[in-house]
Amino acid sequence: MLDLAASRTPGQTDVMMFLSKSYKYVDVGVPAGLLVGGIISNDKQMRQNALYIASSTAISYGAMLLIKHLVKRPRPFVQNINIVPVYRASSTSFPSGHATSTFSTAMALSNAYPKWYVIAPSFLWAGSVAYSRMYLGVHYPTDVTAGAILGTGTALLLQPIRK
């Protein structure tokens, strides 16, 4: 984390901030777009996929909030003054909410549409968002790993509702 903070550049930081902020729009936009597409084309499966993805992301986000409340791990910049964050995130650190929701969205979308051209970009985006949280100095690697596991696990556990 110290090496990441020491090697930041303004251009990289802008990209990482963009990625970090993108999670809200993609997590909501993907199921919303599928729902609208399913309504317009009268495609029941697409509407069910939208519900599955939205449910997976919402449930994993709720579980993440509960775990954050129970664990209360301080942010890296609170525990180590040598880690200088790009901005001071509020709340607690474990697990990463960004990693939880993006991996849940990516896994659910990949389950719903199991094609390489859906899977690869989905997980590339989720991994990039998770990495951005460490780069920005607001999460430990274990925070994003736990978030990725929680989000992915939630999507896998909810897969039967797709049917």
TrEMBL record:
Keyword Transmembrane (UniProt): yes
MF annotations from Gene Ontology: hydrolase activity
Domain of life: Bacteria
Keywords from the UniProt entry: Cell membrane, Hydrolase, Membrane, Transmembrane, Transmembrane helix
Phosphatidic acid phosphatase type 2/haloperoxidase domain residues: 50-159
Protein name as catalogued: PAP2 family protein
Pfam families noted in UniProt: PAP2
Organism of origin: Mucilaginibacter conchicola
GO cellular component terms listed in the entry, alphabetical order: plasma membrane
Membrane disposition: Multi-pass membrane protein
UniProt key word Cell membrane: yes
Location relative to the cell: Cell membrane
